[in-house]
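User: I'm new to structure prediction. If I give you an amino acid sequence, what do you actually give back? Let's try with this one:
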Amino acid sequence: MERQGTAAAVLLLLCLLVPSVRADPAPPLLTAGISPQTRLLVVAPHPDDGTLGAGGLIQRVLRLGGAVQVVFMTSGDGFAQGVALAQHLQHPEAQDYRAYGLLRQAEAQRALATLGVDAKEVRFLGFPDGGLCPLWSTYHANNGRHYRSPFTREDRPLFTNVVLPNARYTGADLTHALTWVLRHFRPTLVVTVHPLDRHPDHCATYHFVSEAVQALHRDDVALHPALLTFLIHWGGWWPMVSQERTAAQLHLPQDFPEPESTWLQLSLAPEEVETKRQALGQYHSQMLVMGQYLLSFGRTNELFAVASPAMQHRSLQMPCCSTAHQ
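Assistant: Good question. You get back a string of structure tokens that encode the predicted 3D arrangement of the chain. For your 326 residues, that looks like this:
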């Protein structure tokens, strides 16, 4: 049963996306993979990441009749520079960070509405911005110890974000929350950030998502969604090409350890590119800090890597999530 599920997942990937090295026209099979049965779950570390990495894929699935749900691990409330610029504060306090998180949630809702996602299909788990790697490495077990955000001073998701009652800032509770979302939405395809992404919250997000997908499959062998990843941060990589950026393709950093030929490419129609750029423009607080960076992801394509055990093993050697569970 598991082998058949894996084969079906690979077939779905081939149907959804065209490998980035293909130069010849795609055969008909590759254009028919997204259907009303496609259920896409995008799991993003922060409120803008899902649009950056998969804004085009979200539109495509919805346009062809599939279902989309977007889940945010954090509300992006621990970004000190962003809080200072958005609220004109030199020394933000806990309530300022919490208010900033609510602002970023509202921006994400507007951005996803621009892409066509219904508000009821957007979830904010409310776990700590800047704290996902400690949850993965140090505060994973429910052993009486839990993490407290140095920004919001919270030690648990806020009431409006709670998926599971009595959740605390532990890795186990975050995995349980993700597993609950997976079990209730029942996706056929999960998309999240690549485990080699150099933002600590991003690489940790991959590990939590992978752990939740595995837990889901243990509970119900019929649920085995395919898992794809996208890249946002890699050192000084900035995928910008001046004024022609919307007409250019997105490429991986030249020093990225995985060859681009092993990734999958989704080519976007001009209207999909324009809608994605409009959605990115809804993140007003982030445009103040890194507007050109956000807009540089408004390309004619999106790139995705198929998750693999080798990918996960290599990422565990990175400093942000290398400590064993305690």
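You can read the tokens as a compact description of the fold. Here is one thing that stands out. Residues 94-115 form the longest helix (22 residues).
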